Amino acid sequence: MERGSVAEREGLAQHVQAFTRWKQDVVKELTRYRQWLNANGLNTSDLDVRLNQALRTLKLDRILLAFVGEFSRGKSEMINALLCRHYGQRLLPTRIGRTTMCPTELYYDASVSGAYIKLLPIQTRNDGVRLSDYKQQLEHWVHLTINLDDSASMKIAFQEVAKTIQVTKEEATDLGFQVEFLESSQENADKVHVPAWRHALINIDHPLLRQGLSIIDTPGLNALGSEPELTLSLLPEAHAILLVLSADTGLTATDHTIWKDHVRDIVERRGAALYGVLNKIDMLWDEDDDEKEVQQHIQRLVQLTAKQLNLDTDHVLPLSARMAVKARLLADEDMLKRSRLLPFEQVLAQSVVTTKQKFFQQTIVKDLLSMVEGSRKALTDRHQILQADSQQLASPDRHSEHERVILTRSVQQEQQVYNRRLAVLHAARKLMETQLPKLRAVAASELLNEHIKTAQQTASSGVLGRGLTQAVGQYFSALRADMTRLKDEVDYMDGTVQKLYQRYAQEAQVEVLDFPHLAVSDALFELTQLEQQAMPFRSRLSNMVGAQKASDKFFTTVASVAGEVYLQTAAKAEQWCKASLGPLMQQTMQHRSRVQQLMEQLNRLTHQGSSRDQQVHVVEEKIAEMDKQVLILDSIMQNLSQGGSSSKALVEPA
Ligand SMILES: Nc1nc2c(ncn2[C@@H]2O[C@H](COP(=O)(O)OP(=O)(O)O)[C@@H](O)[C@H]2O)c(=O)[nH]1
Ligand SMILES: [Mg+2]
Question: Are strands 63-68 and 240-246 parallel, antiparallel or unpaired?
């Protein structure tokens, strides 16, 4: 057990823990429901796919916090403040000057044993392979084991992350760095220091990380500018971005550039929560300063920063990371309070954890509830029929011949309706089969490769710098043109599907069902945003002398990040096309089981040879069994909508 005051118990760790428990509860109910479906022979492939998807989303779910800012703003110290209580010591080394120039990810992976640091050599930038691909090939990384019980060995391991190597200025440019911002070598005037590692992955067992929190610590501006993938694809995955500033300087020109070129558009594109953190507020106190004046000064700083970053004032958080670390290590509540760490943690918890839980409630839980409700409805329908059966059996003056005639007629009628439903469904399926190739023709990997090739030709034929700008522009136009065609196809199909559903409803004399829709416009928006995000890199590279290699690599990165959006959308369109008839299929199947039930009933009536008592008994047993099943579903529904059986929900159910 960790030590902890009342205040500590309201911190980030507790929120994250409660959220994890909540997710586990949802998984538990989902599993119960699946078992129920299987036990009752009611699992369809359509339902199973939906359940599996939900399960995967819940299990893989992580909360990602990204720390962004110029070096020495105290990002590493802030991460220490979040994590140090558990270890009783600082985790990351903090130093004055350009220390960690290597982006670092901290997480816990339960599938491997032992803490480690994995380091990707900086030279791998030369081979044009994306970081995300290297993450799949861990054999290319240098592996260091860390011993969390031995602080000296930990220090050495973490210091390795900050190691630099000396390369010539040309080599540094090829690697994408702006030479004028690099430290020169003491021994050789032609050489400069660059970080030895391109990226670090740190796997450690910490309660917060164990619960699914991951942290990205990014280096300053020059390192961000030299690895476009961070801005274009890693940071956009974050749920909250913390732009770390120093309270003693406020927003500087470099801070502003980081915000403008690397943060602002991500927030627009992905809707991540953005916070400005004013660190080092302890520097605002002098021995004899009046407390009230200092607080007022902090408040003014908060307001100014909020205005500069276009944020609400409650998104600017004053903090002293150094004080917070000290306070946690000494368990000094007073100091902890002055450090303002807990309000900071609470805001994070509120914005990330609560928002996520709400999102899950509105998507996965809602979807689950509607599935369970569907099953319950099917059960109660059957229940009614059985009840009618049982009443008939029990009534003393039954005219079984008359009943049989009526029942036979209704079986025939239902069978006809079923056949009509099936006919519409078959026609619909055929239509979708002919549509699928049309979707594939407007957006596919072969087309994407063509666009890349054409743009690469433009890049190499143009004047340096200009060529790159033209190539990127041309590439994005081509992608957008395909996406627009895809959108037209999807919209057209959506209309067709709508008509099919109407025809089906007419034939079956039921209400028109709702079906899933797909918004390709989201992808179009994302492409536009991505192109905008690539803009600062383009101008930076065209201003860099001798940056041909860096330009080529930049294009490869942009092309592949945008290509992912393109291919994912094409895949989604295909999935959508296949899934759009799901509700029709499910209803048709339900109708089939209704016809079967009526037939069973008819059967019972025809074979009245067995004693009436026996029949009554069989039906009543069935009803009792069904009542039990309804109760199980009710309890699943109740647990789901109340936020789990064992834990207290963080937010009110939607
Ligand atoms: N006074 C003061 N110094 C801090 C604070 N947080 C960090 N520092 C110092 O600022 C320097 C840089 O910190 P570090 O965490 O390495 O910054 P990073 O480069 O942004 O990761 C170190 O000397 C830290 O001790 C703080 O809250 N107050
Ligand atoms: Mg650092």
Answer: parallel
> Quick one: which of 130, 136, 140, 76 has its CA closest to 103?
76
With both helix axes pointing from N to C terminus, report the angle between 400-442 and 582-606 in degrees, rounded to the nearest 10. Answer: 160
Class of domain 66-339: alpha beta
Structure tokens at 58: 């819940």
State how far the Cα of 273 lies from the Cα of 242, in Å rounded to an integer: 8
pLDDT at 97: 56
Ligand 2: distance of its center to the CA of 276 in Å?
Answer: 17
Please enumerate in sequence order all residues whose Cβ is within 8 A of that of 330, keeping only pairs 6 or more positions apart, or say none: none
Q: How many other CB atoms are there within 10 angstroms of residue 632's CB atom? A: 18
Q: Where are the domains of the chain?
A: 66-339, 399-608
SS3 sequence of 345-414: HHHHHHHHHHHHHHHHHHHHHHHHHHHHHHHHHHHHHHHHHHHHHHHHHHCCCCCHHHHHHHHHHHHHHH
CA distance 90 to 86: 10
- Residue 555 Cβ inside 6 Å of ligand 1? The answer reads no
Tokens in use for 188? Answer: 């050789």
For domain 399-608, the question of CATH label 1.20.1530 is answered with no
Helix 548-579 / helix 400-442 crossing angle, nearest 10 deg: 160
Nearest CA to ligand 1 atom 1: 280
* Residues forming a β-bridge with 68: 243
Q: Do domains 66-339 and 399-608 have the same CATH topology?
A: no
| Residue-wise burial string across 221-239, b where 16 or more C-beta atoms lie within 10 A, e elsewhere | bbbbbbbbbbbbbbbbebb
pLDDT digits (tens, 9 = 90+) for 491-546: 999 999 999 999 999 988 888 888 888 889 999 999 998 998 888 888 888 777 77
pLDDT tens string 605-649: 777 655 667 777 878 888 898 899 999 999 999 999 876 544 444
For 493, phi and psi rounded to 5 degrees? -65, -40
Amino acid at 435: Q
Residue 345 CB-half CA count within 13 A: 26
How many angstroms separate the alpha carbon of residue 61 from the centre of ligand 1? 31
State the Cα–Cα distance between residues 317 and 277, nearest whole angstrom: 5
Beta-carbon contacts of residue 256 (< 8 Å; ≥ 6 apart)? 308
Closest CA to 311 of 388, 393, 240, 224: 240
A 10 A CB-CB count for 625 gives 12
What Rg value do the Cα atoms of the chain yield, rounded? Answer: 31
Establish whether residue 72 lines the binding site of ligand 1, counting it when its CB lies within 6 angstroms of any ligand atom: yes
Q: Are 79 and 164 in contact (CB under 8 A)?
A: no
Q: Contact at 8 Å (CB) between 233 and 266?
A: no
- State pLDDT tens for residues 184-234: 888 888 999 999 999 999 999 888 888 888 999 988 887 788 888 888 888
Query: Torsions phi, psi of 227, nearest 5?
Result: -130, 80
Find the 74 Cα to ligand 2 centroid distance in Å.
Answer: 7
What ligand is nearest to the CA atom of residue 70?
1
